[in-house]
Design goal:
The structure is a single chain. The protein has 75 residues and is α+β, with helices and mostly antiparallel strands. Helix content is 49%, strand content 12%. Strands 1-3-2 form a three-stranded antiparallel sheet. Strand 2 and strand 3 form a beta hairpin. The protein is globular and about 30 Å long. It starts with 9 loop residues before the first helix and ends with a helix.
């Protein structure tokens, strides 16, 4: 049976990130929280970004919010 985390959908990953209580993440943070490995993290980031579920706050950082105050307080 395949690992369920490997087949997580974008919305499931975003919900998992929301439950972490943070709003700004690096790819390694996402990997740790979701237990995704290697390139799968980047694939999910790209898919979620294209769907408008997450935002690029600055190089190397992903955000669940576009609010600059929330982003700056968590960097």
């Amino acid at each position: 049976m395949p690992n369920q985390l490997l087949i997580m959908k974008s919305y499931e990953i975003v919900e998992t990130l929301r439950k972490s209580g943070k709003a700004v993440f690096r790819p390694k943070d996402i990997a740790k929280i979701t237990e995704l490995k290697g390139s799968e993290v980047y694939v999910r980031i790209i898919k979620s970004y294209k769907k408008g579920m997450i935002f690029k706050s600055m190089k190397g950082f992903i955000s669940l919010s576009q609010d600059p105050f929330i982003i700056s307080s968590q960097l």
